[in-house]
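Researcher: I've got a protein sequence and the SMILES for fe (ii) ion. Could you write out the 3D structure of the bound complex as structure tokens? I'd like something to compare against our soaking experiments later this week.
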Amino acid sequence: MTTQKHWTETELLLDLEPVVAGELERHLKLAQEWMPHQYVPWSEGRDYDGPLDGEAWSEQDTDLPEAARTALVVNLLTEDNLPSYHHEIASLFGRDGAWGTWVHRWTAEEGRHSIAIRDYLTVTRAVDPDDLERARMTHMEQGFQNIHGDEMLHSLAYVSFQELATRISHRNTGKATGDPRCEVLLARISMDENLHMVFYRNMLAAALERAPSQTMRAVTDVVTAFQMPGSTIEGFARKSAEIANAGIYDIRQHLDEVLRPVLRQWKVWDVEGLDADGEAAREELDAYLDKVETAAQRFEARRAARREREASRAE
Ligand SMILES: [Fe+2]
Ligand SMILES: [Fe+2]
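Model: Sure. Here is the predicted complex with fe (ii) ion in place.
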């Protein structure tokens, strides 16, 4: 056990600035421009009721599976809340220097996601557009508040997991629609989310080198309290259960495809020189992952049993 310098938020922000600059440069080299309008089948579009006196939406307008439609709505509402996320990260990371450049670039890239998904949904009439608009109002009116307040390390850890979680959720939603056009669009969005994850994951790795114990504590706090960014959407519990049952985003994927790969990249189990709290945090993290593993096994068993019952009923 060692005693370590306790870094203030400002010291860390300043010390990480050159790392942000390097990561930003790498990001800009890898990020490819793409055009949201090219992914939308505009020729299928029809006017709606209202000022243009077209046809109101009806349930018969779509044959996309129910769970895929629920996931599309949850993913879109999550993307819609971008002004609140921007506010959170701009207040945390600041708007100056490389941090500021990143904050604005990230915001501009995220903005494309809601544009493209909404256009796809309204043109193909995949969901009730009136419901969607009302849900957007309700969701955005609540805003989004980072549960870890103004703690920078916590926020870096949170966004590392969250970007990967949205990547997986978008990709699996695309597959679940059975519509190859939607799949191509959501796969494209997933590529953006992946690059965002890599940026934040590398930033947190740099923090782990500088302030290992403080960073370990932040990682443990975030993993053990993780909530999807859209968790404040009305009816989220029911919607997320439907999404999990369809295998679009469930606790097994959260553990095996989000938590474990990111923790492995950070080599959290090999970090040396932790102080007493850093060691305690790592032990808590380990114990928590065991709990999630048990919960994932239970969930899988329940889901398999339910699917079997449904299959035998359908015979
Ligand atoms: Fe996004
Ligand atoms: Fe993202």
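Model: DSSP finds eleven helices and no strands in the chain. The first helix runs from residue 9 to 30.
Researcher: Great, I'll pass this along to the crystallography team.
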